[in-house]
Design brief:
By secondary structure, the chain is an alpha/beta fold. It has helices at about 15-40, 45-55, 55-70, 70-85, 85-100, 120-125, 165-170, 185-195, 215-225, 235-240, 245-255, 280-295, and strands spanning about 105-110, 110-120, 130-140, 145-150, 155-160, 180-185, 205-210, 230-235, 270. It has a 4-stranded mixed beta sheet, sandwiched between helices. β4 (about 145-150) and β5 (about 155-160) form a beta hairpin.
Length: about 300
């Protein structure tokens, strides 16, 4: 469980400042990523991409490499690989190893274990009654995000697309409407660091508390077994959860996942190698996949 009484770090730490810088970088990159989705087949030059960002090629290359960990040229190559069915085939052996390890609903986010706890049928019906949900808005490598946590674990991680905090909060509270809501950024800050800086001495599993149907929870547990840098198709995911004909239901379970990034629905793509959609925007999905590719390549 998350201990609400644990002392939390100062919000003005160097790590928070680093997250803030990455968050600002992402905001500058988002429109460029959106454009690259539509134009990467033409193999645009560095000069063309930099012009979309309103920067010189030198400054754009430095900004892009700092944020994503890849050069713009390598990123365009990465997008091309994502379109190829071979990228899914290459991931299959990695997925087989993850399933054979018998993780039983626990996954790794780089150096951190993520464990999932699902609401019981009674808790599902009570929609958060007798619970306290604490929340805070924080910078992240993928833009500003909203984190929500209970004493049972993190129950929401969303992104404030366009800076609309109220809308993000309303959407994240669907299913928890009867909970007592408390804004508490200081207590959420330590969780943010554990999520996005897992190698900095965080040894305890990161716990999630989710509300979903039995099938949805099964899909989310399966997603936790997909390692960083690997991909899985909706068809393959349906096979892995023992429902090979439920591809659309699997896609829907991905779409309603309330704990982005930690439950890595961004690693699920269409069978043909197409990236598909993403609840928090396709540029953000690309951002997550490309950063993971850069991190696992080292």
């Amino acid at each position: 469980m998350i201990n609400a009484e644990t002392s939390m770090p100062d919000l003005d730490t160097p790590q928070v400042a680093a997250f803030d810088q990455l968050s600002r970088d992402y905001q500058r990159m988002e429109s460029v990523l959106d454009w690259l989705v539509e134009h990467f087949d033409s193999q645009p030059s560095l000069e063309e991409i930099a012009a979309r960002a309103g920067l010189t090629p030198f400054h754009f290359q430095r900004l892009f490499s700092r944020w994503v960990g890849l050069s713009p040229k390598k990123f365009v190559q990465f997008l091309s690989l994502q379109r190829a069915k071979g990228s899914l085939d290459a991931s299959r052996s990695v997925l087989d190893a993850a399933w054979d390890a018998g993780l039983s609903g626990a996954g790794r986010l780089h150096d951190l274990f993520v464990q999932l706890d699902a609401a019981s049928p009674g808790e599902y019906k009570r929609r958060g009654k007798n619970m306290v949900v604490r929340y805070g808005y924080h910078p992240s490598p993928f833009g500003e995000c909203l984190l929500l946590a209970t004493d049972r674990g993190i129950c929401g991680l969303a992104f404030t697309n366009g800076g609309d905090r109220k809308r993000a909060l309303r959407a994240s509270l669907v299913g928890w409407e009867n909970a007592l809501l408390k804004e508490d950024p200081a207590r959420c800050a330590a969780l943010m660091e554990a999520i996005f800086n897992p190698g900095a001495g965080h040894t305890e599993p990161l716990k999630l508390f989710v509300r979903g149907t039995r099938f949805q929870v099964k899909v989310w547990e399966a997603l936790l077994r997909v390692p960083p840098g690997a991909l899985i198709s909706y068809t393959e995911l349906a096979l892995r959860v023992g429902r090979p004909k439920a591809v659309r239901a699997v896609a829907n379970a991905n779409a309603v996942n309330a704990v982005s990034y930690l439950i890595p629905c961004h690693r699920a793509i269409r069978k043909a190698g197409l990236l598909g959609g993403y609840r928090w925007g396709l540029p953000r999905k690309l951002a997550m996949l490309s950063r993971e590719a850069a991190q696992t390549a080292h």
